[in-house]
Write a structure and sequence with these properties.
The protein is mainly α. The protein has one domain. 65% of the residues lie in helices and 0% in strands. The chain is built from six helices and no strands. Helix 2 packs across helix 6 and helix 4 runs antiparallel to helix 6. The longest helix is centred in the first third of the chain and has 20 residues. The protein is elongated.
């Protein structure tokens, strides 16, 4: 391979890795719920996500009050800002009107 081809492949690989780690993930949100919130909430992830519909979760997140809503549902919890997007994706995916049920 020429130097230019090697460089192009390296750049493409680097961009692929960066883009995949920067996006939020439902499974990651589920793991965060299990590790950080389940004990504080006292109920399963299914019950947590079923507190609202997808539209309601979207409105809460859009207004910037997602962390406050988590605190309201789970008063003993402390959700760090870096986890908000992943936990939101989890809650949205398994909302009461989604028909999906998490395994936690």
């Amino acid at each position: 391979m020429t130097k230019m081809t090697k460089l192009a492949v390296a750049v493409l690989l680097g961009l692929t890795l960066l883009s995949s780690t920067a996006s939020a993930d439902v499974k990651k949100g589920q793991k965060i719920y299990l590790k950080k919130l389940k004990a504080a909430c006292g109920f399963s992830g299914a019950k947590f996500a079923h507190q609202h519909t997808q539209d309601e979760w979207e409105a809460i997140k859009g207004s910037g009050k997602f962390a406050a809503e988590v605190k309201k549902l789970c008063p003993k919890s402390q959700l760090k800002e870096k986890y908000v997007q992943d936990v939101y994706d989890f809650a949205y995916e398994y909302a009461k009107d989604s028909g999906n049920v998490p395994s936690c």
